[in-house]
Every structure is written in structure tokens, then in C-alpha cells.
């Protein structure tokens, strides 16, 4: 990395024993009165470097134990900054600040007070943190491997860092890399995992600046791994040393022939937690753009997780919207024939069925339906085949007796209730 912007590469080394990050800043040449370093070809220890050297040694004191360390321009000011994951557990960022050098002395780099980003479950391995442009905006971002997820910290337009975004993973992540595997000039996030069959998991970068679904690839178990454009063609290759045979193996991403393609599997991992085994899922064109989207319930978080589909790209990153607590089930239908699919949400805990719809670029909070008894099951369907969607539900009374009930023509009922509310508001307004 070039820390002082002079066009020469410098070196940064973590020294946990002395609680500092040592910087070796490359000089333009040897200083006044110094003699160049000469290596004797006959010398047995040709790697021994004795002072004077071509490097000016500086240090950044840190009070944390550093596990993984990267450099990058993390505030878009043109200067190289430092980031590391360490203990006490957290992601730490140290930004460089501009300073003037004295005329006869080498410039001493100045640093701002370090900022801590709270992430408690980061991996304590050397390859858990990477710095690269992850959303195709030209600015450096950070990605950190966690216990059961990978975190991305994107740089915003004003140069500040956004809050971490957590992407659940299907296997334990051992290391993180960034590379352009498919040759589209957009960085991809490569996860090295403990998956025995397919240890390489990739989230390809999308044109929208988002990360795509998690795709798994088979390679032999690696003892060493390197990403590099070996053949000069588009797309980087994966070079590994096979842990068993100790052979060097090169893998490249290729497009399979149609007759060789099995059912493609793309993973959109969901976070584990309270109620994660009670999730429900519905598919429909919720935003009315002609493409099917996916909505999943998260009972523990009392939220709906919305995956919008984008043409030629697939499902985008999930967006969460608030809903009922402990959601029991979902059902989807275009109840009002406006081209947008609505979602019926049942919560036995809250004794309610509500209807959520996509408006103002978001899923609305479910609006309660007028019911009789406490609902325990429900479904949206045209039960009387009149072309209108009905709400069929099972409810129980105070004696725990179950009843099958139907709200016919749900759209008409909702419209009548809305008109009734407007009438009441008008009457109150007139009286005042």
C-alpha cells in the first residue's frame, strides 16, 4: 500500500507483541550520509537487511490484539487508512489525516482516533477481513467473516461508513476473498467455508451494486488458495494446493452446456433465531412490475422479509418490514385486481388476521380484518368461484369450539369499510 501518496509501495506489519502496527515507508533514496545497502552475492544470508535501509520506520499504537488487518481508502480522501478486527471484539477503523512534512525531514503520518464498529462474532483468523469495492461505486468497502454470517460495511457517498449489513451463510466461513470470477468487471465476494463437498461459496456482484445469492462450487480441499488472472482472459482463476495430494490445481469459472446443467441451486441464507423453524413463504408479484417476488415471515423478529425480483438479475437483497408478533402463516392473492399481490398475515398470538400490500415502495403494516372468534388458520381463495378472492379461516370461541368461516369478496368488504370510515370522518368534521 502507498501510505504517503508518493507513488512507492510501503509495508504495514502487525506487531501484537509490542501492541502496534509498524509501517515501513519507502524513501526516495538513502538519506544524507547514508550508504546504499549492498548484498554480497557470496554472502550465505542474502536476505539479511542491515541499516541504513530504503524504509522510514513509523508505528501506530493499538491497544487491541489484532487478528485480521487490511488497508484501504475508507473515507474517499485519497489517503490510505487502516482497518482490523481485534480483541476486545470489534471492527476498528483508523483514518489517516493530512499533515505537512518539515523541509529536511521525512513526513510523519498522522492518524485520527480509531473508530469501533460493534461486531462481536467476527472470526479470529488472519483472512477474515477484506477491503475492496463491493457495490461497484468506486469506493473501498469492508467485508468481515462472522460465526454464521458475513458482514459488509459499505462506504457512503459522503465518505463515512454505513452500519454493518449481516448476510447469513449456510456453512461456517473460514476466510473471505474478493475477486472478479466471471469477468464482468464487478467484484465478487468469495467465502472459503468448512463445507466438505463444496467449500467455495460465491456471492456474485450485481450491476445494481448489490450482492447476488450464494452459489456453491466444488473444489478439492485446499491447504493454500490464491485468486489470480492467470491466462489473461476475462475472469480470475482459483489456484489451490490440494491438501491431500499436495498438487497445484487451477479452477476457472465456465458456462455449462445446457444438456449438462442440473437444476441450478442458488442460496439465500436466512438468519437463525427464535421462531426460525416456524417461517412461512409466499410468492407473488407484490410490486406489480410483472415479475414474481418472494416474501418470508420472521416470527421471532415480528417482520416480513421481502425479496424483490429484478429482471435478468434475480432476487435482490432482502428488505425487512414490521408485522405482527409470532406470525403463524401467510397467504397471497391479488384481492383487488390491481396487478399487485396482497399478503394475508395470521398471528395466533395476537388473535388477528391482517392484510399487507406494497405501496410507497414498501410493504405496509398488515391492516386487521374484522373477524368472529380467535383465528387459528386461514387461506385466501375464491371459494365460491365468482371471480373475487375470499378469506377462509378457522376460529375458536371461548369454549374452544372450532368454526369454519368465510369473508366473501374481501376487496368489496375492505372498500365498504374504507367508505364507512370516510363517512364517519366527514360527519365528525361537520359537527366540529
UniProtKB/TrEMBL annotation:
Keywords: Signal
One protein family per Pfam: FG-GAP_3
Keyword DNA damage on entry: no
Protein name, as recorded: VCBS repeat-containing protein
Amino acid at each position: 500500500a502507498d501510505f504517503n501518496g508518493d507513488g512507492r509501495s510501503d509495508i504495514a506489519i502487525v506487531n501484537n507483541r509490542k501492541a502496534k502496527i509498524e509501517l515501513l515507508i519507502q524513501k526516495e533514496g538513502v538519506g544524507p550520509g547514508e550508504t546504499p545497502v549492498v548484498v554480497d552475492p557470496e554472502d550465505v544470508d542474502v536476505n539479511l537487511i542491515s541499516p541504513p535501509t530504503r524504509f522510514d520506520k513509523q508505528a501506530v499504537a493499538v491497544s487491541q490484539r489484532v487478528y485480521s488487518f487490511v488497508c484501504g481508502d475508507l473515507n474517499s480522501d485519497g489517503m490510505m487508512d487502516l482497518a482490523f478486527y481485534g480483541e476486545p471484539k470489534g471492527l476498528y477503523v483508523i483514518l489517516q489525516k493530512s499533515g505537512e512534512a518539515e523541509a529536511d525531514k521525512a513526513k510523519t503520518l498522522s492518524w485520527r482516533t480509531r473508530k469501533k464498529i460493534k461486531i462481536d462474532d467476527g472470526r479470529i483468523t488472519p483472512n477474515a477481513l477484506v477491503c475492496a469495492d463491493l457495490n461497484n461505486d468506486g469506493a473501498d468497502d469492508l467485508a468481515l467473516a462472522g460465526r454464521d454470517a458475513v458482514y459488509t460495511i459499505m462506504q457512503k457517498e459522503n465518505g463515512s461508513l454505513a452500519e454493518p449489513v449481516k448476510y447469513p451463510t449456510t456453512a461456517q466461513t473460514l476466510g473471505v476473498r474478493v475477486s472478479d470470477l466471471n469477468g464482468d468487471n464487478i467484484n465478487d465476494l468469495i467465502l472459503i467455508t468448512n463445507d466438505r463437498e463444496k467449500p467455495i461459496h460465491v456471492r456474485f456482484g450485481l450491476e445494481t451494486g448489490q450482492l447476488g445469492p450464494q452459489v456453491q462450487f466444488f473444489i478439492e480441499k485446499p491447504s493454500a488458495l490464491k485468486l489470480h488472472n492467470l491466462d489473461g482472459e476475462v475472469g480470475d482463476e482459483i489456484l489451490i494446493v490440494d491438501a491431500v495430494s499436495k498438487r497445484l490445481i487451477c479452477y476457472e469459472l465456465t458456462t455449462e452446456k445446457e444438456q449438462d446443467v442440473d437444476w441450478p441451486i442458488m442460496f439465500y441464507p436466512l438468519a437463525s433465531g427464535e421462531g426460525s423453524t416456524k417461517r412461512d413463504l409466499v410468492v407473488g408479484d407484490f410490486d406489480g412490475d410483472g415479475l414474481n417476488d418472494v416474501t418470508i415471515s420472521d416470527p421471532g423478529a415480528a417482520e416480513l422479509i421481502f425479496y424483490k425480483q429484478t429482471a435478468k438479475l434475480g432476487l435482490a437483497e432482502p428488505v425487512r418490514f414490521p408485522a405482527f408478533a409470532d406470525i403463524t402463516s401467510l397467504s397471497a392473492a391479488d384481492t383487488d385486481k390491481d396487478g399487485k399481490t396482497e399478503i394475508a398475515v395470521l398471528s395466533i398470538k395476537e388473535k388477528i388476521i391482517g392484510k399487507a400490500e406494497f405501496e410507497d415502495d414498501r410493504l405496509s403494516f398488515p391492516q386487521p380484518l374484522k373477524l368472529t372468534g380467535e383465528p387459528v388458520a386461514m387461506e385466501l381463495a375464491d371459494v365460491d368461484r365468482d371471480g373475487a378472492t375470499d378469506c377462509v379461516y378457522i376460529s375458536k370461541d371461548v369454549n374452544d369450539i372450532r368454526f369454519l368461516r368465510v369473508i366473501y369478496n374481501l376487496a368489496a368488504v375492505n372498500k365498504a369499510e374504507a367508505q364507512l370510515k370516510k363517512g364517519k370522518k366527514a360527519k365528525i368534521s361537520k359537527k366540529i
